[in-house]
Amino acid sequence: MNREFWLQRWAQGEIGFHQPEVNFYLQRYWRMLQVASGATVLVPLCGKSRDMMWLCAQGHHVVGVEISRHAVEQFFEENALRAHCEYRPPFRHCSAGGVSLLLGDIFDLQPSAVGVIDAVYDRASLVALPPAMRLHYVEHLTVLLRPGGSMLLITFEYDQQQMSGPPFAVLESEINTLFRAAFQLEILCTTDALEFYPRFRARGLTGLQERVYRLVRRG
Questions:
Q1: Strand pairing of 61-66 and 183-192?
Q2: Alpha-carbon gap, residue 59 to 193, rounded angstroms
Q3: Which end of the chain is more exposed for a tag (fewer CB within 10 A), N or C?
Q4: Cβ contact 172:178 at 8 Å
């Protein structure tokens, strides 16, 4: 992940990856993870996603990790929340309304900084990473997520020769390779989704699938 690339995108407001509405798949499939009220949910590379407020409304404590100060500040401003912030190296912690955002690099996050993570929600994190970083990312999540904890993962599948990422295409075969050692895996949904992403069609795509996975961390 090129840190400067993402910081520049946020600084220039080039955030086509941001969804102004709560994600459809999150609302439809989150209940299948059976995450208890009061559980802690980790949202890696969270941006200013409205999904975090939805998760909070389900009774969860939400921990988001984001490298852009712009994204963190905009999240609290747009949700009319007054955050309390303090620096606890290596992260700046900002919290309000049941959501805690950690400003820093997800790969610097250690269990001691967040305690027990019961679930992970990944809509745009794995697909933002180039192939060389994905195994490291999955191994890192495995350390953070408690045994028996669940993960809702949303991916893109398309012809990578037609469009360069990010977001990158992450095929089912790669998901199996990345996660099978530590997770049980179930496909919840596969959708032909190009019509919902006109900006991808404009970049040359002729086909796009979104795939939704439920993963459970083995004990």
A1: unpaired
A2: 30
A3: C
A4: no
- Alpha-carbon gap, residue 203 to 193, rounded angstroms: 15
Token pair listed for 216: 């459970």
Contact indicator for 152, 29 with CB cutoff of 8 Å: yes
pTM across the whole model: 0.94
Of 211, 196, 207, 168, nearest to 29 by C-alpha is 211
- Structural domains of the chain, ranges and CATH numbers in brackets: 1-11+38-115 (3.40.50.150), 121-219 (3.40.50.150)
Local confidence pLDDT in tens for the 219 residues of the chain: 567 776 677 667 666 566 779 999 999 999 999 999 999 999 999 999 999 999 999 999 999 999 999 999 999 999 999 999 999 999 999 999 999 999 999 999 999 989 999 999 999 999 999 999 999 999 999 999 999 999 999 999 999 999 988 899 999 999 999 999 999 999 999 999 999 999 999 999 999 999 999 999 998
Q: Is there a contact between 21 and 51 (Cβ–Cβ < 8 Å)? A: no
Distance between CA atoms of residues 41 and 146, nearest Å: 11
- Could you give the CA distance from residue 74 to residue 169 in angstroms, rounded to a whole number? 28
Contact at 8 Å (CB) between 100 and 61? yes
